[in-house]
Amino acid sequence: METLPTELQTLVDLIERYPQLHARTLAKVEFKNYRYPVISVELGAKGCDVPCVLFVGGVHGVEVIGIQVIMALLESILSRLEWDSQLQLLLTKIKLAFVPIVNPVGLLNGTRCNGQRVDLMRNAPIEAETKVTFLVGGQKLSSHLPWYRGHQGVEQETQALIQYVEQLKTNSSSLISLDAHSGFGMTDHIWFPFAGSNRQIQSLGQIHYLEQLYHASYPHHRHYSFSPQSLIYRTHGDIWDYLATPKNDKSFLPLTLEMGSWSWVKKNPRQVFNFAGLFNPQKQHRQVRTLRKHTVLMHFLMDLAASRELENMNLELLLKQNSAALNRWFRC
Ligand SMILES: [Zn+2]
User: Fold this and answer.
1) Mean pLDDT value across residues 157-183
2) Of 5, 55, 146, 195, whose CB neighbour count within 10 A is largest?
3) What's the gap in Å between 238 CA and the centre of ligand 1?
4) What spacing in Å lies between the alpha carbon of 59 and ligand 1's midpoint?
């Protein structure tokens, strides 16, 4: 029996310990004669007429802190559900879904890519409509360079996530997703599609309103910079671009949390000599602080979904938010 990476073993243990978790194996990824599962878990309300919030981590295996942030939320919710009647009530109104480790082999190997050296966030079947950032935007030159898009079509892990999100979209009244990454910049970013085009996502007005509500609700937690990803850098094959492409899909808000890891490196420069150190806090107090830092945002997303405030925006509010968003992010 192969030893699973720690975070994957923790997930398997949670599923055994909490029978109310509805777990599914979305894919089994073979690597060195062992098959590593991509697992989803769900809890909360059932039925197609409830909002859903999805938390995703580990698309890039080396970005362990993203997996840990998502797992810490899941563990906290499971523990609190034993006594917290407010949380129990909340979960009668929404469905929660988690895919904490999209790329188990990347986690095992401590790499950004999967076992085939493919960067899953450059591997979705979608081409950028504008010129992409050189190399970082995704490349098919060599699997030995980073940001490799692959030559064999869509990888198993990418396909598993795409199919799962499409099912959630179909089976929920609305879907907010938060995909946790780390490794870019000094500050924490919240990005949304598109990464490969100047177009506006259908739910642009809702995303702008979400940010406004978050800032009004938590004025002392304004450490996120919200923007379309195309304003930062452009890429091919972004999974969330692909999923946000269908028209008239106003009830899907795919958000990416990009934790600014350069600030950890700045405070502890020796981290640059360790590959994982470029993407994860190495000192324990900094890791704990990071796990704490995003709790408010994640609970806000759950509360917001349960309120159906975004689903019930009237036309006037929607137009106002949409025009504010256009002015802010898309004015030439
Ligand atoms: Zn990443």
Assistant:
1) 96
2) 195
3) 11
4) 6
Lowest mean pLDDT across 40-49, 104-113, 148-157, 248-257: 248-257
Cα–chain-centroid distance for residue 232?
A: 17
Instruction: Give SS3 for 122.
Output: helix
Contacts of 8 (CB under 8 A, 6+ apart): 36, 37, 39, 101, 104, 107
**Cα 70 → chain centroid:** 9
For 143-168, what is the mean pLDDT?
A: 95
E runs forming strands in the chain: 22-31, 34-44, 52-57, 95-99, 175-182, 188-192, 224-228, 252-259
| Cα 87 to ligand 1 centroid, rounded to whole Å | 30
- What pLDDT score was predicted for residue 186? 82
What separation in Å is there between the alpha carbon of 57 and the centre of ligand 1?
9
